[in-house]
């Protein structure tokens, strides 16, 4: 169910320029909290996949 909710969030982000999403994710990645690093990389991968699939 979490994947479905996240896909809805991706569709919502689709209304914004993709570079703003990348900038936001890069800002998150600059954090020093290593606990969520795998989650951040997964979010970046999913955002990239969504961007490519929307072309």
The tally of domains stands at 1
What structural category arises from helix and sheet content?
A: mainly alpha
Helices, by number, come to 3
* Total number of strands: 0
> Runs with pLDDT <50, length 5+?
none
Q: How far is the first residue's CA from the last residue's CA?
A: 26 Å
Strand content: under 5%
Radius of gyration, Cα only, in angstroms? 11 Å
Helix content: over 70%
Largest sheet: none
Mean pLDDT: 68
Q: In sequence order, what are the helices and strands, one letter per element? A: HHH
Task: Specify the overall morphology.
Answer: globular
Structure explained in plain terms:
The chain has 55 residues and is mostly helical. The chain has one domain (2-53). It contains 3 helices and no strands. The termini are far apart. The mean pLDDT is 68.
Brief write-up:
It contains three helices and no strands.
What is the strand and helix layout of this fold?
Blueprint: H1 2-13, H2 18-29, H3 37-53
Helix pairs in contact: 2-3
Descriptive terms for the model:
0% strand, mainly alpha, 75% helix, single chain
């Amino acid at each position: 169910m979490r994947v479905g909710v996240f896909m809805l969030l991706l569709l919502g982000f689709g209304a914004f320029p993709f570079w703003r999403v990348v900038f936001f994710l890069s800002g998150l990645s600059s954090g020093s909290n290593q606990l969520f690093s795998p989650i951040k990389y997964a979010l970046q991968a999913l955002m990239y996949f969504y961007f490519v699939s929307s072309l």
